[in-house]
Amino acid sequence: MKRIMLVVAYDGTKYCGWQMQPNGITIEEVLNRTLTELLQEQIMVTGASRTDSGVHALGNVAVFDSETRIPGEKLSYALNQRLPKDIVIRESKEVEADFHPRRCVSQKTYCYRILNSKFPIPTERLYSSFIYYPLDEKRMEEAAAYLIGEHDFKSFCSAGSQVIDTTRTIYDISVERTGEVITIRLTGNGFLYNMVRIIAGTLIKTGLGAIPPVKVKEILEKKDRSHAGPKAPAEGLTLEKIEYCNKIY
Amino acid sequence: MKRIMLVVAYDGTKYCGWQMQPNGITIEEVLNRTLTELLQEQIMVTGASRTDSGVHALGNVAVFDSETRIPGEKLSYALNQRLPKDIVIRESKEVEADFHPRRCVSQKTYCYRILNSKFPIPTERLYSSFIYYPLDEKRMEEAAAYLIGEHDFKSFCSAGSQVIDTTRTIYDISVERTGEVITIRLTGNGFLYNMVRIIAGTLIKTGLGAIPPVKVKEILEKKDRSHAGPKAPAEGLTLEKIEYCNKIY
């Protein structure tokens, strides 16, 4: 028996997120089915990040155990032949038997993309969130700075979450504009349910001038979801990479 | 009766190109249907560029004549409410009765996007062409320089074309790399059938090292389609803008 790790990129547009669920097709389900068919044994992957419906990934991570004699590094080629074009295995390899994709994480990077223009651009609509009113990215950056560091992010966690400890560390947040596209990039040791999208929604409110940047500090201190901004749409979000003990996937 | 001009952006992924045809849905057809419904009169648009199946646009141009009392500038809003999300009217306005979107063109700009990476990225697949082997963008730029100016582009025109005069002027071609994405941008007074995609395919061959950059000069001189490279895939191509007498759409 060996444990194999996959680095998975996907276009989340057509999927009901990562995790198996009864109402629609998910990334996890497609991987399980494809691996089971390919390896001729029942495979169940464990994912690092259970991305929401419509969210994309450049480097999510999954592991599974198998009796296969195919070398770990070769599996990605066989899988990519069989997977739909909106799911790509970037890397596959054998890992230690005790490697767990959630417990061993050292940091994750997410990117939130906003199209800030007078009209929506059809070729951007699947991978960004459209905002018509001008956003001031300097104000957004100023607001974002209050979130860097170790904080209780309860205000930025969806109300339905069952997590008890809502303290997380954000190592860095950058806000950059290239023409009509604003990119928010966040790196942290972990993110609560919907945390990145609620942060994006709150920064958008700051950028619109609806709240002053310093207000973000107050929102953090309130530890109450109702004070933060709305959850920004899924299509703007991409899980870019997951790092394990200085190794990037 | 007034003549109204539309600047149209679209994601060409799901369409069989611009021009009406029996085998599938086209941009022209959707515009005609939507305008006819909205204005309650039979509308037939005339397009500036009959983009191929799968090709995208940021700024194609169409005109039509109508008896409507809706001001030209307001039409875009009413249309965008009714159009599918992959077609957006960026601008609408009344123009002179003799304005013709093909005859009055002063220049067009196309962009060809290549993803040059070790694995395809799912979120790039609809708007770029994937090339696994490393491309040398400096060689591509060197090759592109031979195409700038007034030339007979017969070698870069699909064999089926009925055009008699195959002379066109390319004002500029740039080849730029940003990380794993290479962008070829061409501006000219007009382009022959499949010309941009055949140029892109030929530059890709140069970038791969399959032919030396100077060979492009020879290909031009041969005036024979069989000497140029293959036609690069549609999904990488976007019609960026059309300019009319110093005015950009």
TrEMBL record, chains A, B:
<keyword id="KW-0819">tRNA processing</keyword>
<feature type="domain" description="Pseudouridine synthase I TruA alpha/beta">
    <location>
        <begin position="7"/>
        <end position="101"/>
    </location>
</feature>
<comment type="subunit">
    <text>Homodimer.</text>
</comment>
<dbReference type="InterPro" id="IPR020097">
    <property type="entry name" value="PsdUridine_synth_TruA_a/b_dom"/>
</dbReference>
<keyword id="KW-0413">Isomerase</keyword>
<feature type="active site" description="Nucleophile">
    <location>
        <position position="52"/>
    </location>
</feature>
<dbReference type="InterPro" id="IPR020103">
    <property type="entry name" value="PsdUridine_synth_cat_dom_sf"/>
</dbReference>
<comment type="function">
    <text>Formation of pseudouridine at positions 38, 39 and 40 in the anticodon stem and loop of transfer RNAs.</text>
</comment>
<dbReference type="GO" id="GO:0160147">
    <property type="term" value="F:tRNA pseudouridine(38-40) synthase activity"/>
</dbReference>
<dbReference type="InterPro" id="IPR001406">
    <property type="entry name" value="PsdUridine_synth_TruA"/>
</dbReference>
<feature type="domain" description="Pseudouridine synthase I TruA alpha/beta">
    <location>
        <begin position="143"/>
        <end position="244"/>
    </location>
</feature>
<dbReference type="InterPro" id="IPR020095">
    <property type="entry name" value="PsdUridine_synth_TruA_C"/>
</dbReference>
<dbReference type="GO" id="GO:0031119">
    <property type="term" value="P:tRNA pseudouridine synthesis"/>
</dbReference>
<dbReference type="Pfam" id="PF01416">
    <property type="entry name" value="PseudoU_synth_1"/>
</dbReference>
<protein>
    <recommendedName>
        <fullName>tRNA pseudouridine synthase A</fullName>
        <ecNumber>5.4.99.12</ecNumber>
    </recommendedName>
</protein>
<comment type="similarity">
    <text>Belongs to the tRNA pseudouridine synthase TruA family.</text>
</comment>
<dbReference type="InterPro" id="IPR020094">
    <property type="entry name" value="TruA/RsuA/RluB/E/F_N"/>
</dbReference>
<dbReference type="GO" id="GO:0003723">
    <property type="term" value="F:RNA binding"/>
</dbReference>
<feature type="binding site">
    <location>
        <position position="110"/>
    </location>
    <ligand>
        <name>substrate</name>
    </ligand>
</feature>
